From TrEMBL:
<dbReference type="InterPro" id="IPR027417">
    <property type="entry name" value="P-loop_NTPase"/>
</dbReference>
<keyword id="KW-0067">ATP-binding</keyword>
<dbReference type="InterPro" id="IPR003593">
    <property type="entry name" value="AAA+_ATPase"/>
</dbReference>
<dbReference type="InterPro" id="IPR003439">
    <property type="entry name" value="ABC_transporter-like_ATP-bd"/>
</dbReference>
<protein>
    <submittedName>
        <fullName>ABC transporter</fullName>
    </submittedName>
</protein>
<feature type="domain" description="ABC transporter">
    <location>
        <begin position="13"/>
        <end position="242"/>
    </location>
</feature>
<dbReference type="Pfam" id="PF00005">
    <property type="entry name" value="ABC_tran"/>
</dbReference>
<keyword id="KW-0547">Nucleotide-binding</keyword>
<dbReference type="GO" id="GO:0016887">
    <property type="term" value="F:ATP hydrolysis activity"/>
</dbReference>
<dbReference type="GO" id="GO:0005524">
    <property type="term" value="F:ATP binding"/>
</dbReference>
Length: 253
């Protein structure tokens, strides 16, 4: 289990009553939380719970309807371009260009992230060595197995050492061993001081996070460490916690 680093640490996400409305529908309803430097923060919830809406607001891609949020020290209303420079992002749908080689992808994204030519060359060499992809570096990304694509995609998302990396269902569809290797990369980024904000459907992965929030119907229902949540819900696993929350939400409808 990863150690909790949140005590007395620098806040890199500050969120207060953040809300997003689409007409009469409230996709994210007054969500309030803080995330700390180097923390692995799990953002859980069923499909349609409001997770992606919240991430889009925090990444500067969607303007909130009301509330307040600061990401990497920048305001989500007024400083979205600064936010984008200080974060990495990876989605389940895979973030790299399949018709470019590994090195071409590294070069392309390194340029977008504002790295110098030398930084791109050095970081690119280190990245392919670390992932043991030297022999594949000049091959098209499309030729890689899904697990390798996901690990490469994550490594490129943190190439510029962002303050925060947002991972939206990053391990969907990959085998358990590759998921475990992917989480080793997450731990490594966290140790370097990068905050990891991750959504996942896999409740066993929730156990790897320092703290977890669970969204139900646009509201943040709980926020705590995995061990505290299991104690509070008298549960032996995060699956049980999630099930109890979903059941109580249905009863209150």
């Amino acid at each position: 289990m990863h150690k909790n680093k949140s005590d007395a640490m620098e806040k890199v996400i500050v969120c207060k009553d953040l809300t997003k409305r689409f007409g009469d529908f409230i996709a994210a309803n007054e969500i309030t939380f803080d995330v700390y430097k180097g923390e692995i923060f799990g953002f859980l919830g069923a499909n349609g719970a409001g997770k992606t809406t919240a991430i889009r607001m925090l990444c500067g891609l969607s303007v909130p309807s009301s509330g307040h949020a600061m990401v990497a020290g920048y305001d989500v209303y007024k400083q979205t371009e600064e936010i984008k420079k200080n974060i990495g992002y990876m989605s389940q749908k895979f973030s790299l260009y399949e018709d470019l080689t590994i090195l071409e992808n590294i070069e392309f994204f390194g340029g977008i992230y504002g790295l110098t030519r030398k930084e791109i060359k050095d970081k690119g060499r280190n990245l392919v060595e670390k992932l043991d992809l030297e022999n594949e570096a000049r091959k098209l990304v499309a030729s890689l197995p899904l697990g390798w694509k996901q690990k490469l995609s994550f490594s490129v998302a943190v190439l510029h050492d962002p303050k925060i990396v947002f991972l939206d269902e990053p391990t969907g569809g990959v085998d358990p061993l590759t998921r475990r290797q992917f989480w080793d990369l997450i731990y490594e980024a966290s140790e370097r001081g990068i905050t990891v904000f991750v959504t996942t459907h896999y409740m066993d992965e929730a156990e790897y996070c320092d703290r977890i929030s669970i969204m139900v119907d646009g509201k943040m229902e709980v926020l705590d460490t995995p061990s505290n949540l299991k104690i509070n819900f008298k549960a032996t696993s995060m699956d049980e916690v999630f099930y109890q929350l979903a059941r109580s939400a249905k009863r209150s409808d």
